[in-house]
Amino acid sequence: MSPDEISAANTTLPEPVPDRSTDVVVFDGRCSFCTRQVQRIARCDGGERISFLSLHDPRVAERYPDLTHEELMARMYVIDRGGGRHGGAAAFRYLSRRLPRLWPLAPLMHLPFSLPLWQWIYNIIARHRYWLGTTEVCEDNACSVHMKK
User: Fold this and answer.
1) pTM of the predicted structure, to 2 decimals
2) For residues 148 and 9, what is the distance between their CA atoms, to the nearest angstrom?
3) Looking at the domain assignment, is residue 148 inside a domain?
4) In the chain, N or C: fewer CB atoms in 10 Å?
């Protein structure tokens, strides 16, 4: 395991708490690639501006009934403090403005008319996420469904 993976494995993702207003990142918690990516995002959040929930957590369906399971499986979502929904590349674009450590990426992410390109790239990565950089077997072998050719 690389030092980055060891560090990521030791990162506990903050969960939403009722008395604190944060943006909530909803991600595929059964996908090791996705989990590593949100752990990286969490490390960029020095001010505890965001919290995280796996789309498989029952609280997601209770709190965000407008987001279907299929939508959540297709892309990460950020639900901002005002209740706005940002999915896929738009979610990362939103976070590039919200987290100071990601500010260097904000000008690139916000180039005029670039969001369709970022979304296209995001969709390709999301469709192949179970293949990307993992040799681990997911909980209950859940990834095998997505890894069939």
Assistant:
1) 0.80
2) 27
3) no
4) C
